[in-house]
C-alpha cells in the first residue's frame, strides 16, 4: 500500500506520527514492507509543526503519480493553504482514483478543492462549526474518524492511531491489525461512529451527574437561541438553585457562566477559523448585542474578537494571550 502524506505549515506532528506508526509496526511484525509512505509539501523542504518541531518533505510535484491513499495533514489555519497549486494536485490524485483523506483539519482542504461535495467528513472539534459554515454541501460529523467510500477523515490526536489501524485492517486482516495494535500499545480499537466527546465519562474516569449532562445537552442544542436557566430547570424538573449547586460541585462554575462560555467557545472557532462578519458571529453565538459580545469575548479570551481574528490564527505556543482567562462564578452571562 502506497501512502502520500501532504503536510501543511503548523500541522500536528503527534497525530501524523501516530497515524504512521501502526504501518511501521505492521511492516516490522510481518517481515515485509507492505506499506510505503512519503511526506510531501507544496514546495518541499522543512515544514514547521504546531509544536515548534519541523519535518523534511519532498516537493509535492515529485510525487505526481498514483497512490493508494493521499492524506492531507493540516492543523492551524488550513485556509492559508487554499491555493490553486494545492487544489490542482489534490484533484489530480482524486482523478487517478486514490483514496483522499484528511487528518485534523485536512478535510478543509479537500472540501475547498471540491472533493467532499455530498460526502461525510470530520475535523477536530474546535473547527467543527467553521467547517459546517464554510462547506454546507459536506456532512460534517463529530465522529473520531469517517470512512465514506474514497473519502476518509480523522479528527487528529490519539484518534489517528485508531484511524490507521482500521485502514490496516481493511488492507490486510484482523491478525496483523491486532499485532500492530498490541505493538504500539493501543489496547482498545475504537469503532467507527465513536464520538470525539462522548460526554458520559471524563478521560480520568469521573462523570458529571446526569442532571448536569442533561442540562449541558440542552445548552448545546440552543447556542444560537439560548434558553434561560429557568427554562432549562423547568425542562429538567428541578429548581434553578438545585441546578446551580450541581454545576458548582461538578464543574466549578454556575450554569449561566458555563452556558455563556460554551457560546463564546463556539464564537471563537468562527472568529479564528472563518471570515464571517463579527456581527454574524455574535448572533450565531446567541448574543443580540455586539457590544455585549465583544466585552464577554474579551473577558474570556483576553482580547477582543477583532484582535483574536489575527492572534488566534497563530499556533498557541506562539500566542501572546492565554486561550482562556479565569473568570469568577458570579460573572454575568
From TrEMBL:
Source organism superkingdom: Bacteria
Record-linked Pfam families: DJ-1_PfpI, HTH_18
Protein keywords: DNA-binding, Transcription, Transcription regulation
Organism listed in the record: Pacificispira spongiicola
Record has Transcription as a keyword: yes
Domain HTH araC/xylS-type residues, every copy: 213-311
GO MF, any single term: DNA-binding transcription factor activity
Name of the protein: GlxA family transcriptional regulator
Keyword DNA-binding: yes
